[in-house]
Amino acid sequence: MARISVLADDVSLSNPSLVEGFPGIGLVGKIAADHLVEEFEMTHYGNVHCDSLPKVAVYQENDTALQPPVRLYADGERDLLVLQSDVPVQPKAASELADCLAGWFDDNAVTPIYLSGIPTEKSDDAPSLYGLGVAGGVDLVADVGIDAPSETGLVSGPTGVLLNAAVEADRTAVGLVVESDPRFPDPEAARVLIKRGIEPLADVEVSVDDLVDRAEQIREAKERLAKRMQEASQEESTQARPIGMYQ
């Protein structure tokens, strides 16, 4: 059974956007989510508990307090939430989370923005970004001018489970898919997610100077998790992939 334990009742939110950052291809969602939490100095708003999540405790640099691996952060001024995960999430856990989050999203009028990378060979061109939507999310993507995908594909892993739950319930949700390096952490793809996707959708302005300047440091810091994601089953790794018109 999944549940949300709210820690910061004093944070006021009104129709907030939520950015999901499960680990996946290029760790693009994870890097983008972590950057938002750090850049805005977001409040640790709540913890997400689920029987199917790994039973681990997480500690942070220069902090003695232990935390669960999946947490919510909030910024009341910007009406922004971030769902942050420090571990790979299996589909069973994602299904429990989807059931738990659905009611909470409805109660708090949350618009989720789900993030995924699509494996692409590295080039000198900026990574392309594509927008997907469910229910009202289709209009949200169109209104901010995010391109539709250029080929048929699917989103798998925990993010795919959450998007599937939104489709089944016809609940408003947005999916962002960015071209990303399948082998290494990709801060550049995360930058594109933030500037061309999250900023206009959530109506926020995010400095990414630190993300760009520290790209190599971020790659090194995330390298171990990236290796774990490559070794994990495909079901645990959030990613988009083309499936072709004919199968």
From TrEMBL:
<feature type="region of interest" description="Disordered">
    <location>
        <begin position="224"/>
        <end position="247"/>
    </location>
</feature>
<dbReference type="GO" id="GO:0000502">
    <property type="term" value="C:proteasome complex"/>
</dbReference>
<dbReference type="Pfam" id="PF09754">
    <property type="entry name" value="PAC2"/>
</dbReference>
<dbReference type="InterPro" id="IPR019151">
    <property type="entry name" value="Proteasome_assmbl_chaperone_2"/>
</dbReference>
<protein>
    <submittedName>
        <fullName>Proteasome assembly chaperone family protein</fullName>
    </submittedName>
</protein>
<feature type="compositionally biased region" description="Polar residues">
    <location>
        <begin position="231"/>
        <end position="240"/>
    </location>
</feature>
<dbReference type="InterPro" id="IPR038389">
    <property type="entry name" value="PSMG2_sf"/>
</dbReference>
<keyword id="KW-0647">Proteasome</keyword>
